[in-house]
Design brief:
The chain is an alpha/beta fold. Helix content is 42%, strand content 13%. 52% of the residues are buried. Homotetramer.
Length: 377
Amino acid sequence: PPLDTLLNLDDIERVATRQISHKAWAYYFSAADDLISKRLNNEAYRSILLRPRIFIDVGKCETSTTLLGHGVGLPVYVSPAAAARLAHTTGEAGIAQACGKFNAIQLISTNASMTPEQIVKDAASGQVFGFQLYVQVEQSKSEALLSRINKLSHKIKFICLTLDAPAPGNREHDERASNMAATQSVTSIVQSSSTSKPPEGSGGTISIANQLFLGTDSRLTWKTTLPWLRKQTNLPIILKGIQTHEDAHLASLHAPLVQGIILSNHGGRELDTAPPAVHTLLEIRKYCPEVFTKLEVWVDGGIRRGTDVVKALCLGARGVGIGRAALWGLGAGGPEGVERTLEILKAEIETCMRLLGVTSISELGPKYVNTRAIEHL
Ligand code: FNR
C-alpha cells in the first residue's frame, strides 16, 4: 500500500510483518520469556494521563531540541538494532537516509548488517550518529573496531555502551523460527573466522540472537571497562540499559567520563519483567533527581505514539529512542518507510504539544502528566 495511507506506527508494523520473511519478523518481534516487559513498555505510557492547559497561543510549535549538544529536528532518535538488512536491502544505510531528512540521530549497532563506513557514507551534511558497542571477549577486536570509529568521528559523535545484555535473553519466537528454517547467515562486523562459528552440534539451528551474541564479553564492570574504553576513544560515552535508580546514581558518579544514560530494558528482549524505562524515570525522580543535572537521560522501549514521547520528556527524558518501529518502517517501505515513521511521530508530537498548550520542548515538565496509575508498581 502507498505509504501515506499508513496512518500510525501500528499500520506500518502490520505492513512490514506481511512483507519481510517470517524469520526476520520473529527476530525483530521477539522478546524474552512471556513478553511481559515488552507489553508493559507500551502499556506504562498508555496509563499516564496528560494534563492539557487551554487558552494558550499555540500557533507556532517547534519540536527541535538538542541531544548531547547536537541540534536535532525532533527528540526521537533511532536505537541501535542488529541486522537491518533482514528488513530491506538498504539496511542501516536506508535508516540513515531517512534520519538525514529529519535531522535525527541514529545509533549504529555493533551487530549492524553493514559496516559503519557504509552506513555513514552518504549521510547528509551535519548528520550525527552514535556507535553502540558490545565489548568482545577478544578485546583486540573491539579495539580495532573503536579505532575505525575514531576515524569516523566527523559523523559518529559518541559511543553507547550497552550493559543490559551480558547474556542473550530467552526469546522463544526467535528460537522457534530458527528451528524451522536452515539458518541464514547473520554475522556482525566484528565477527569473522573462528570465534563466531555456531557451536559444534548446533546443527545450524542457533537463533539469530544467540548467533549474534557469540564472542560478546560477559565480564564487564564499572571498574575495569570504563577506563579501558576511555583509552580507546575520546568520544563522549553514554551507558545503555540502566534499569534502577541505583545504577543511574552510580553512572552519575562517573560523570563527566559518562555523559548520558539510556533507561532501557532492551525492548523487553533481555530480562522479562524488568521495568519499563518510564518506571526507572520515576524512581530517579524520587531517589536521585540530581542525576538529571549531571547526565542526559534518554529512554527507549515501547514508543508507538507522539504522546508516549511527550510523556517521557515531561518526566525528565531528553531523548526518546525507537527500536522496532524503525525496522518496521524499513520493512514496510525501505528508507521512505522509515521517513514515514519519523514523519508520523513528528506530527503526533506536534499535535500533542499544541493540545497541551506548549510550543517548545523546553516547556515540557511534570505538571503536564498524571502518573498516579503507574506509581503503585
Ligand atoms: C535491539 N536492541 C539492541 N540494542 C543494542 O544496544 N544493541 C543491539 O544490537 C540491539 N539489537 C536489537 C535488535 C532488534 C531486532 C531489536 C528489536 C532491538 C534494543 C534496542 O536498541 C532498543 O533498546 C529497543 O528496541 C527499544 O524498544 P522498542 O522501541 O523496540 O520497543
